[in-house]
Amino acid sequence: MDASVALLLAQDGITNGAIYALLSLALVLVFAVTRVIYIPQGEFVAYGALSMAAINAGFLPPTMWLVVTLGIAVAIVDSVAAMREGAKARLPLIIVKNALLPVLAVIVVRLLPLRDLAYPLQVLIALAFVVPLGPQIYRLAFQPVAEASVLLLLIVAVAVHFVMVGMGLYFFGAEGARIPPFTDGGVTLGPAYVQYQTIWIVGIAALLIAGLALFFEHSIYGKALRATAINRTGARLMGISADLAGKLCFTLSALVGAFSGILIAPITTIYYDTGFLVGLKGFVGAIIGGLVSYPLAAAGAVLVGLLESYSSFYASAYKEVIVFTLIIPVLLYQSLTTKHIDDEEDH
Amino acid sequence: MAALLTSNRVLIAFLLGLAILPLFAAQFTVTIVNYIGLYALVALGLVLLTGIGGLTSFGQAAFVGLGAYATAYLTTRHGMSPWGTLIVGMVITTAVSLALGFITLRLSGHFLPLGTIAWGISLYFIFGNVQALGGHGGIDGIPPVDLFGLELGSSRAFFYVIWITLLAAIITTQNMLDSREGRAMRCLRAMTMTEAMGINTLRYRMVLFMLAAQFACVSGWLYAHLQRFVNPTPFSLGQGIEYLFMAVLGGASAVWGAVFGATAVSFLKEWLQDWLPKLLGATGNFEMMVFGLLTIVVLHRARDGLWPILLRAFAIVAPQRRQMKEVEPALPLPRRDAPVPGSEVLRVIDVTKRFGGLVANNKMNLTVRAGEVMALIGPNGAGKSTLFNCISGVNPATEGEIRFMGKRIDQLGSREIAKLGMSRSFQHVRLNQDMTVLENAAIGAHLRGRKNFVQSAWRLDREEERRLLWEAAHQLQRCGLGEHLFDTCGSLPLGKQRIVEIARALCSDPTLLLLDEPAAGLRHLEKRALAELLAKLRGEGMAILLVEHDMDFVMGLADRVLVMEFGEYLAEGLPQEIQTNPKVLEAYLGGVDE
């Protein structure tokens, strides 16, 4: 391997690593707040990328009827809950917010000349029809069992993953897609030629991470999420709704996932089932952070990206094996240093 | 409901049906029932792991692959006998499962499934890329199994091998669960309690994971010799998750749930693979979408899976794990040497417990002697339960020294302390609500038995088992719960559940008994009976340390009383002295001169 190849691989590794870092942050967030090990996180990457590809080609967002259907389902479930509590006054808002809004969005998007819209607007539309799936899935699949064990939540997460992959195949077909880069071309930086898209990815990832940090540090919702992560019961006693916290972090994770997909799709072909492995690599990063530390998770994710990139050069058939083997020393270290495991019953 | 079907009749009909099925059924049916048997064996392992142990694995398909590839490679390339390769496969499986268990099972419960995802993906890629294993093309020409000169080449003949193996696995699993080791496994989720009863929870989690992996490995071996060909496809992570869906849909809490889950998923899959592509106008693995949705609905609505619902729907009397209506008399268990009455059993010296900046116990001192009831009282939040947890090793002290029977124990875990002869009850009842009162009490006698899970699987533990249950029944009778032996703990009122905890502690033949609010929730007569029991135990030389809020109960029973407030020593003395101590009155009543 000469220096130019090494630089190219490093660039590749850092680009993918930035995406894994974003995903690992979302995973840590979801786990900390809801205890859900969010296997379907990767599906949002595929959904985001493939929706953007469809819109960019002038098609309607493929997931729009899914958003409408789940919206109606959420409206029904929420309405039933509100009726039980005798809070009829909340019904109009529940129906408008969950069921009518998606229908309205579908009507609007059908009137738009999608192919001719500016790129950023296309991105916004793609996000608008993927991100709502996050809170909808939380409401329908996770909220009813929010107090169950981590194990049960994990099995639900895996089930959701399969449902989403199946739907992905139905909506997007088996063929992969790429989207045009944000900016064509690249620039020579010292010894390396760097694509503009790479700069976009790393830059936006850094901005998003900084944005999330600001959100957690300074906004009331961010503080509420942190409080819930530290102590669910305590946060609830302080008037922070666990359901709201759950929906909020599922929204954030859907946003991060879908946007990651749009970022990466110009340089990698994305298929309906690509998300799973991408998400799992985010997990490897998150596990390096012990599923609790954000900076360690992000650093771990970049490490995963680099390792993947270099092992694809040396032993490409085994690159997945090598990446996933990385968790062994991490788990070994953690298990030798952990003294006390919490009793699930005590929580 | 005219005639209730009994589980035995249904079982006999099922077995007869199975026995004659290969004689007349179509090849297609034999094939699918063969596969159901193979799947059910893997799902049975997951029932053990998920339903019993509260753990799970997504990588079982990789263990199936391990068993299949071990025999495929060794029989075709090295000419080994299939029986030899079965052993090799199981040895490798043991090594892998113990290694995976070693690195993940000390951590919180979700690291095992995450680890098995990585393992499942990695092994799949290795199968597909190692040339010696045939790459993605796989290995063909695997010889049939030869049993005493009888070549089991046809799938009709192999049907019996598969189902006899599965039934043997089910029977031995049921035997194992109905034993000392099985009771420990069924209580693994309540780790603090289980460790305090002297049970090594890590060991049992390892055993469960290893057994589940072995079942999968054997299923893989059977698969390879049924199919006579292997390639990586059936050992993917996706298949591993399908096994989990079988266990969850069927019902992870019952061994027959595995068989039902495997059957339901297999037939449903056949049907969905015909219909879904037509319905959706596209081809692909859409059936997994349906299994995913079904799993979510089942976990929301019926966490125990569909098997119990099926039993109810057909009014079948649920197969009882224990239909025993009385306990067989047996020889009493050997007892440990009692200390000399009046000799010091426990000494706590300057024990401090900090939680971060909060000092929950500050330089506490106390002693308990054999044949004495020492009561620890104080307002809520005084740190009494914290001190209990320090003494019993549940949550060790930050500083100070604790001696039990002359041995220093402040650095020992609760399991080691239990072995030395200390046993306790918990402030918040920690019983397995689904097990019977008798089984729960028998958990306490765990350390007084020796037989392991292999012996119990093959019923080589019955003599010891009778003695353990006899001891449990005896202690329960002493505690006045003789008529509830076969009730599930969940059906008892909370007060009686506390008494079960005491009986469980007594089953360990303790020198020192720690009781955390034993009288809470008891009615007047029950309290009096409890006081009489404790007085009797004291008369037999037992040392008792108890935390209690009921002052009548404490003052009537205790020999000495120690009062705590805000984590500190406030007073100590005879009950009468404490009752008139102005400092104590102030602590409880907010000052005497107001």
Largest sheet of chain A: 2 strands, antiparallel
Number of strands of chain A: 2
Contiguous low-pLDDT stretches of chain A (5 residues minimum) are 342-347
Spatial shape of chain B: elongated
Q: Helical proportion of chain B?
A: 40-55%
Strand fraction of chain B equals: 5-15%
Strand order of the largest sheet of chain A: 1-2
Q: What does the radius of gyration of chain A come to?
A: 21 Å
| N-end to C-end Cα span of chain A | 53 Å
**Mean pLDDT score of chain A, rounded?**
89
How does this structure look, described?
The complex is a heterodimer of chains A (347) and B (594). Chain A is mostly helical and 347 residues long. Chain A has one domain. Chain A is 72% helix and 2% strand. Chain A has a two-stranded antiparallel sheet with strand order 1-2. In chain A, a hairpin with a 2-residue loop joins strand 1 (186-189) and strand 2. In chain A, helix 2 crosses helix 11 (242-264), helix 2 (41-56) crosses helix 12 (274-288) and helix 13 packs antiparallel against helix 14. Chain A is globular and about 70 Å long. Chain A starts with a helix and ends in a 10-residue tail after the last helix. The relative contact order of chain A is 0.19. The model of chain A is unreliable at 342-347 (pLDDT under 50). By secondary structure, chain B is of the alpha/beta class. Chain B folds into three domains: 7-313, ABC transporter involved in vitamin B12 uptake, BtuC; 339-421 and 510-594, Rossmann fold (3-Layer(aba) Sandwich); 432-509, no CATH class. Chain B contains 23 helices and 14 strands. Chain B has helices at residues 7-24, 27-52, 60-78, 82-104, 111-129, 155-177, 180-186, 191-196, 201-227, 237-250, 255-280, 287-301, 306-313, 384-392, 414-419, 437-443, 453-457, 462-478, 494-506, 524-539, 551-557, 575-580, 582-589; strands at residues 139-140, 145-147, 150-152, 229-230, 344-355, 358-369, 373-377, 399-404, 407-408, 422-424, 512-516, 543-547, 560-565, 568-573. A six-stranded mixed β-sheet of chain B has the order 10-11-12-7-13-14, sandwiched between helices. Chain B has a four-stranded antiparallel β-sheet with strand order 6-5-8-9, with helices on one face. In chain B, helix 20 links the parallel strand 11 (512-516) and strand 12. In chain B, helix 6 (155-177) packs antiparallel against helix 9. Chain B is elongated. The chains are: A mainly alpha (347), B alpha/beta (594).
